[in-house]
Amino acid sequence: MSDTIATPAPASEAGQDGAIVLGDNQYGKAEVRVVKVDRDKPRHRITDLSVTSQLRGDFTVAHTQGDNSPVVATDTQKNTIFALAKDGVGSPEQFAMRLAEHFTSSFDWVTGGRWEVKEYTWEHIPTSLTTNASDGEHDHAFVKAGTETRTAVVQRDGDDVFVVAGLEDLSVLKSTGSEFHGFPRDRYTTLVETDDRILATSVTARWRYTTTDIDFNAAYDDVRRVMLETFADVHSLALQQTLYQMGKRVLETHPEIGEIKFSMPNLHHFLVDLAPFGLENPKEVFYAADRPYGLIEAEVKRSDVTPEPRAWATVTGFC
Amino acid sequence: MSDTIATPAPASEAGQDGAIVLGDNQYGKAEVRVVKVDRDKPRHRITDLSVTSQLRGDFTVAHTQGDNSPVVATDTQKNTIFALAKDGVGSPEQFAMRLAEHFTSSFDWVTGGRWEVKEYTWEHIPTSLTTNASDGEHDHAFVKAGTETRTAVVQRDGDDVFVVAGLEDLSVLKSTGSEFHGFPRDRYTTLVETDDRILATSVTARWRYTTTDIDFNAAYDDVRRVMLETFADVHSLALQQTLYQMGKRVLETHPEIGEIKFSMPNLHHFLVDLAPFGLENPKEVFYAADRPYGLIEAEVKRSDVTPEPRAWATVTGFC
Amino acid sequence: MSDTIATPAPASEAGQDGAIVLGDNQYGKAEVRVVKVDRDKPRHRITDLSVTSQLRGDFTVAHTQGDNSPVVATDTQKNTIFALAKDGVGSPEQFAMRLAEHFTSSFDWVTGGRWEVKEYTWEHIPTSLTTNASDGEHDHAFVKAGTETRTAVVQRDGDDVFVVAGLEDLSVLKSTGSEFHGFPRDRYTTLVETDDRILATSVTARWRYTTTDIDFNAAYDDVRRVMLETFADVHSLALQQTLYQMGKRVLETHPEIGEIKFSMPNLHHFLVDLAPFGLENPKEVFYAADRPYGLIEAEVKRSDVTPEPRAWATVTGFC
Amino acid sequence: MSDTIATPAPASEAGQDGAIVLGDNQYGKAEVRVVKVDRDKPRHRITDLSVTSQLRGDFTVAHTQGDNSPVVATDTQKNTIFALAKDGVGSPEQFAMRLAEHFTSSFDWVTGGRWEVKEYTWEHIPTSLTTNASDGEHDHAFVKAGTETRTAVVQRDGDDVFVVAGLEDLSVLKSTGSEFHGFPRDRYTTLVETDDRILATSVTARWRYTTTDIDFNAAYDDVRRVMLETFADVHSLALQQTLYQMGKRVLETHPEIGEIKFSMPNLHHFLVDLAPFGLENPKEVFYAADRPYGLIEAEVKRSDVTPEPRAWATVTGFC
């Protein structure tokens, strides 16, 4: 039952023209679901994370010869995530940076990597009862809040550290205050112009911090607030315009952010034609479609900030 | 390109011993995604629904002969849902009852059916800006709220109407105040007893109203409140106990409810063994497991209320 | 940090009018993912299962008092599933029956339960190589096959055993040989009649065996074959007719089956109107819609077989 | 009800230091579900696609001013997909290239874009009946095949066209012929070495063609075959080794491919410890875990092929 043993390429082959060689690579443990309870006070706090650790460096012999001598086991990476969580998480960004520091300082040949943290939000359960409660909230009982997931991707290349924060699936909708007209018409254009439509999207955004010396949790909360307020406030002539304004106001209020990228589906709500049934439909009854959907993606940036492609190389889902 | 035409059974066959016949059946349109905007005032309201309509009655010839003369097209059912939404939704329960009344009164041979409505919750976006806003909330911009989905299943059998309300995926967690011990041990038992564990679940609940003369929206909000408060409040010796108390308090506070059923997964959070790394773990670092999970299902009812199996026949996911 | 202790109802309350009491209940471990490798021969076989075990009996004190003395831990149920798999799985139906026998015979107060098994299908990887291969297939390398999942639900009530087999998500499509016309028209009807449409569905079916003395694996394979052949063969005037013929032919060829139930979505494929672009579309280009979809559910049964509601009580997703 | 009108930045601002400007952007219609039926012969063929079209070029005024004069509506892009499908799809790669040619040649300011096509595989239903059938297969009835999805991403930048083919979710498993040992051990390492384990993964692969003058469908089929055969054949000392061999053999047999990238989860199957129950477990009973999972990503390439970052810029899910 011994399968064919893969024969490694002779050493001389690697350099020859047309040789087949290993390119970029990374590996690790994905979606480690760790929940940290801070219980030093009666009012508990919980941090609910999904952590992915991926290492980069010289792992060639594992690929070409099945030699695992440099392969820090993905199981070891998982154990390390749990062990480091014992000291507290702080913020997703800080926790990812600690993991980056640990792995690159512990193993010579690990020269960098990628650490992604997703955080799910919980709120204390409101209660009218007073046992184990204060200010109308229970001390150690929680209900999951909102639809969005907070994200952080930290990448490290030698001593360079890149921090990209973000959120996914923040579902928002405007029931008026959105138009769409003035677009070009060709032989395939049938869309009717409108000066009043529902605008709905599920925001995915990622932004790069140009410093690590900030309060990541406070910054996140405020970026989320600015995005929500701007989505609500902008009278939209195009989802592109709404997106751009959201990015612009985030950058205006957050000098520590170099650029921000958005991926925003246009979740169509079509006005239902009730005329066949003898009814008018003055923008009241809509059909929420699933697929296809519009998809608007753009980056808003500062003209004087140096691009940092390494920060974005594996931050997926964006142009 | 004519496939084999199905030959209907001769009329004499239906009555003979061992004949193959049609049993229970229903059909309709599923998951009609309708969004109703109430825009008569500056502060809009939106109702975001997924509606399923299924008709019952005598549709035998469609099955046995492909004769569609009794088949109210599922497309017609969809159109009807949109048309009736024009007059306002009210509550999921009321909207489902209106659909039931419409179909059973419009078509002689439609003697009943099943109408299920799911509602997704939206909140006005909080804002510090004042344009189109009042009391710190935007008038016509919304953000999706919470993780749970409100549900209503109305079934009608002739003139009898059954209303089962509910919710799905209400995710809750207690970081302490939960024990589990005293269970029997056999040769396959390895579980260690605990007097302090995380208790987490995603509540699915359904309850039957014994009257239709109530404010369904107010009732829903209060049942949800009671369930959350009770989950938080009960010091749990078993998830079964928490479930039972949640049902008991709902029935105690809501005389209009005959019985309530729960399906509650026990979403395990295992304490991570950090001893191999020289660390203690005093209930601080947990691993959130996906599968398998415990699954606790039970009904809490009033001893003097007559069971109504027709109300529950197709309300799935419960014992 | 002690939450409110739930006070059990006094014994006298249970019998009084209007008392709140426990109704039907069951509990256990859900979705235990077990893979059994049969490796006694060079050509391995693998059985890939998701097993759910739920016990029924008298568990009242766990609910009312948090007394776990009768609660066979769900962890113990999981361990038992793994231990019994060591002896071989046989078929999903047989494995579920062994679990039923084990739990009801091991614990006096466990009077019945529900055991559901889902099986995922794997095929040996075809290969042109000869190492560890025979007849063009590799001995111990597999690729997942098909989209459907095989299911079995065994319920036990005292000494009575009920076996319902089935499958989920068998995706099929006919590109012609399907019509739909002759349906009634009312004020909400806009659908155009058609004598040639795409018919697509994802079959979920469940059937009850009236005996346990059969080769369950062979029966399953043949029922699946008959359903596929019949779907292909019937010239369809309604999805209801196709469904009925599928059930009829299964019952005609399988006397060991008492009745069969189907839930079949009508997955709409709408002909795209290309006329605005100056193109004809003779049934060539279709838009595959997501929601809403038609939903057709029916039972086909033998007129002389006694109904057995206990076999179907918790087999969900059907009328 | 007019929301705040977004004021465009004055023209002078764009050039000034620290100005906030638009970065990379693209937009279009996502997941257009088109099914093409080729029915010129009795034996039909169906092509089942999900097509995403995204345009690039100068769309600045839409973002900064809500001026839609350059915005080819996403609805128009959808219509174009349907209209072009009328002429036949050919292969996902060819269809995407036709869309690229259409949009870049039709609109001056559209200088490029991204077109992604996913294809779902269907097989003719095997049948023992002879009506509308030949060689044991039905002419126009189909069943969905396999678990994997074929993918193609075509990007165009001016006159440069990049074609990346691929597949997602090809689920494979070896029940023996896999070892893992020799990895480094640190204070966080607890994993035990093994010389016989289950190796399971769900292959996602993408490869770049260096020419467009090939039979894309034949190439796809053969790449898939080589990957499956190699996965089966390689006696694995590390999933990295299996991955590398899969890539190497694809490149060796397909000179038209410049490089190939893989993302392969290590879907852990843990041997269950049956010792507490007095049972041995000689690699027979495994627990299939969900999360966390290993994640191995790498590129295999030719040393003499010039890298083409533009081909991979938005091909996500890889390092």
TrEMBL record, chains A, B, C, D:
GO MF term list: urate oxidase activity
Residues involved in urate binding: T74, D75, F180, R197, Q240, N266
Enzyme Commission number(s) of this protein: 1.7.3.3
Binding-site positions, O2: T74, N266
Record: residues binding 5-hydroxyisourate: T74, D75, F180, R197, Q240, N266
Enzyme class at the top of the EC tree: oxidoreductase
Pathway participation: Purine metabolism; urate degradation; (S)-allantoin from urate: step 1/3
Catalyzed reactions per annotation: urate + O2 + H2O = 5-hydroxyisourate + H2O2
Entry's transmembrane regions: none
One GO term of the biological process aspect: purine nucleobase metabolic process
InterPro entries assigned: Uricase, Uricase_CS
Domain of life per record: Bacteria
Active site: K29 (charge relay system), T74 (charge relay system), H268 (charge relay system)
Keywords: Oxidoreductase, Purine metabolism
Similarity field: Belongs to the uricase family.
Biological function: Catalyzes the oxidation of uric acid to 5-hydroxyisourate, which is further processed to form (S)-allantoin.
Protein name: Uricase
